[in-house]
Design goal:
This protein is of the alpha+beta class. It folds into two domains: about 5-180, Sandwich (Jelly Rolls), CATH 2.60.120; about 185-290, Homeodomain-like (Arc Repressor Mutant, subunit A, Orthogonal Bundle), CATH 1.10.10.60. About 40% of the residues lie in helices and about 20% in strands. It contains nine helices and ten strands. The strands form three sheets. Strands 2-8-3-6-10 form a five-stranded antiparallel β-sheet, with helices on one face. Strands 5-4-7 form a three-stranded antiparallel β-sheet, with no helix packed on it. The chain has a two-stranded antiparallel ribbon with strand order 1-9. A hairpin with a 2-residue loop joins strand 4 and strand 5 (about 55-60). Helix 1 (about 135-150) runs antiparallel to helix 2 (about 155-180) and helix 3 (about 185-200) runs parallel beside helix 6. The longest helix is centred in the middle third of the chain and has 23 residues, at about 155-180. The chain is elongated.
Length: about 290
Amino acid sequence: MEEQIFLTADGFPLVRDIGWNQASGLYTHPDRLLDYEVFIYVTQGSMQVIEEGTEYVVQAGEYLFLRGGLHHWGEPRCAAGTSWYWVHFTSAAEHRDKSSYKDYIPLPELEYYYPDYYKYRFPLPKYGRAPVQLGLESRLRLILEQVQRTESQTHWMTRSCLSVYELFMDIHAAGQQESSTSVSGKSGNAVRRVTAYLIKHCGEDFAGEELASQLNMNYSYLSSAFKQATGQTIIETHTKLRMNKAIELMRTSAYNVSEISDALGYPNPYYFSRVFKKVLGESPSSYMKHLYRT
């Protein structure tokens, strides 16, 4: 069983309970085998937890995720005064077919919706120190206060789920930055340069030889590094960027389908329409009818 907990883009974590505790004396973490996940954030002192034989000592300002289905327990090593926030939740990713989700987050440059955009999952860091700028303690306090204050209001549990989801996404993003901004070194630089080139040349047909020449790098290497880092090929990304540009023109101009096809360098509007439908799931003329065009 995977030790990491995954979240999906199309389903927020379902919060079961949330709270804050402070040990009045020497404290031992409960010996448990749960069917849901646990998030712990220590605000003072330290919390010792063992999960399936791996020991974690969570200091003030650090967090730990405990996965459901894995045995965890503690020893009497948490000093009096230790305080922590905790969230019990169920991740949607644990109850869905993993094969239907990509393990890659869409590139920020691919900003428009397409049918399988949200079909990806992302891992939460197992353990770490929360960057000061995340303000975890104040955010958890606010979530807990909102829960306690609004329990009689409509959708209060769902609202707490959304707040926790945003918090967890920020923890994930901070973890990605710590691991050298998702991709690093030579391959990371290559991915950034390829993406910049594709954006600049999204209004024309793709030419691998020209890309390799412009970047002065071997195309086979570029293709392999890009696919490994992003989960999609260079050509797929170029095509989606061209569709992004097409949507931008639909929203900001009075161009018709034929004029948009010409602007993007397609040989004819029929071929452009086939590509657009393959990526977006509907024809460009149908898509345009749904937009508020100015």
